[in-house]
Amino acid sequence: MTQPYLTSRLQGFGTTIFAEMSALAVATGAINLGQGFPDTDGPAEVADAAIAAIRAGHNQYPPGLGIPELRHAISQHQQHWYDLTFDPDTEVLVTAGATEAMAAALIALCEPGDEVVMFEPYYDAYAAAIAIAGAHRRVVTLRAPDWTFDTHDLERAITDRTRAIVLNSPHNPTGKVFDRAELEAIAKVAIERDLVVITDEVYEHLTYDDAQHIPMATLPGMRDRTVTISSAGKTFSFTGWKIGWACASPELLAAVRTAKQFLTYVNGAPFQHAIVTALGLPDSYFSEFAADLGERRDLLADGLRDAGFEVFDSRGTYFLTVDIRSIGQADGLAFCRDLPRRCGVVAVPSSVFYDDTEAGRSLVRFTFCKQRSVLTEAVHRLQAR
Ligand code: PMP
Ligand code: GLN
Hints:
Elements (H helix, E strand, L loop, with lengths): L16 H12 L2 E2 L11 H12 L12 H15 L9 E5 H13 L5 E6 L3 H9 L3 E6 L9 H7 L4 E7 L11 H13 L3 E5 L25 E6 H5 L6 E5 L2 H11 L8 H11 L3 H24 L3 E2 L7 E5 L8 H12 L1 E2 L1 E2 L7 H4 L2 E5 L4 H12 L2
Parallel strand pairs: 1-11, 3-4, 3-5, 5-6, 6-7
Antiparallel strand pairs: 2-8, 7-8, 9-10, 10-13, 12-13
Helix pairs in contact: 1-12, 2-10, 3-10, 4-5, 4-9, 11-14
Bound molecules: 4'-deoxy-4'-aminopyridoxal-5'-phosphate and glutamine (GLN).
């Protein structure tokens, strides 16, 4: 072969930082505060529902859109929490996690050479999906400590080739929850420039203090130009089940579905049944889970501050960010590669979420979706560093 096997579109993507850091955690026996996955299972009745679904024979391909019971449950969830009405038969699509929904939306909507605008730091899968679609990304940088953006930067990022804006709120890795004024600014640009907004809302129920998740689709004029994506993984602590969904107008959803049906076609038949049970849990499940995670965020944030780190406020998600210049370091990647052996803790360098690597060079992400005893031990290790 004279040419590399990997297409030029995917050159540079390599192995995800999560795989690299989780492998390092296993190799060194370090506490893994890198990859965001809980170290306890979700509700027992949801696990029981999955087992019951397997025993009941729900083991063959489900319908292409997802089982009707789950599409109804997703539609009811949107109505109940956000007063958003989606027809379960034409406006809801079950996917293999939010990741597939995002990839299908980008592949469906973008011509080669089109541009997609998103905010950095950004979840790494967006950049890869945009590349797979043959499109190009343009980024608008969120600035610490509040991770605000300059509306002029957003306007400047839009060109005649812009097709879509990708928005993730609550936001990984910063824990930012976009407020109404920010969403209105994005919506204004989307409407003026006739763009689709693709939203990743997988942390919709994981907000803390007085932060409130506002779906972009609830803003005036946005419902029919938004693809709203979420998934069950984070809300119910079953990240390995990979049941996600997209909600959109019939025309937009049909486009996303066309791409999705040739990616996985369908997935997770018994788990689809179990997520019907999950979405039917009482409101108290959602509020208690968020309150508990909020306490764990405090435990980690306070411990990191005591260890000398500058910790930025996180108001949502599984994650918080520190600036390691506060402890006399500058390079997050070197710091994270060294930390497991030196200190027995794994974290993720935020620079991998930036195109402007200088902007993220000294930032490091920690997850707090772990048991209190694990967080306490990690904090002790970091304080003794
Ligand atoms: N979006 C964001 C912002 C994430 O942090 C993650 C990580 N799990 C995902 C999507 C992936 O979601 P899923 O597992 O449902 O594909
Ligand atoms: N979303 C998780 C995180 O940000 C990881 C998912 C993955 O490994 N791709 O840590």
